[in-house]
Amino acid sequence: MESLIALFIGKLGLDMNHFELFCAQLKAKNLKKKAHLIREGSVCNFIGFVSSGTLRSYVRNKEREFNNDFYFDNDFVSAYTSFLTQMPTNCNIEALTNSKIHYISYEKLNMLIAQDNAFLKLSKYVSDTYFIRKCKRETSFLKNSASERLKGLSSLYPGIEQRVSQYHIASYLGIKPESLSRIKLLTYVNK
């Protein structure tokens, strides 16, 4: 929770009272590996903060799953479009390791905002974070090769290859696992 305190006070310019009010509304959830935080078709009524663990967000069609985000320690986690619209989500969020999430409900966050609009800074920060991540990913698919997308992923999530399987990384990059192995081999040979 120290990184959350640093966010409130350092980045958002809020004070310890704001942090304590926020924490009073948090609930905790422990997820076992392979358990889902949310499933497709549900309405996401929370924003979570990953206290520990690794999670993935994915969508699926009739044939396969496609990873579209990862969440690690100190990340916010949510099916955010569903959270904003309060409509059912088309994504799933699954724990890749045992994970602990502290979360605030849609209603409780809006209650805090109604009491003190300084909490809008937190909402803006979460929205900005999601928007920037999604834009960077979209741009990387339009402009970059798979090798460049891998480099970008590694810089965005340092150490991801030690925490997430090659299969999931390949899915996030939009390539097959064997293509990822080939890219990594070429990168290693060219060093």
CATH superfamily: Jelly Rolls
Mean pLDDT: 92
Q: Could you describe the largest sheet, including whether it forms a barrel?
A: 4 strands, antiparallel
**Proportion of beta-strand residues:** 15-25%
Corresponding CATH architecture: Sandwich
Radius of gyration: 18 Å
CATH-assigned fold name: Jelly Rolls
The general outline is globular
The domain tally reads: 1
Derived structural class? alpha+beta
Q: Major sheet: order of its strands?
A: 1-8-3-6
The counted number of beta strands is 8
CATH C-level class is Mainly Beta
Protein name: Cyclic nucleotide-binding protein
Organism: Niastella koreensis
Pfam families: cNMP_binding (PF00027)
Domain Cyclic nucleotide-binding: 29-116
Describe this protein with a few key phrases.
single chain; 191 residues; alpha+beta; 4-stranded antiparallel β-sheet; 9 helices; cNMP-bd_dom; cNMP-bd_dom_sf; Cyclic nucleotide-binding protein; RmlC-like_jellyroll
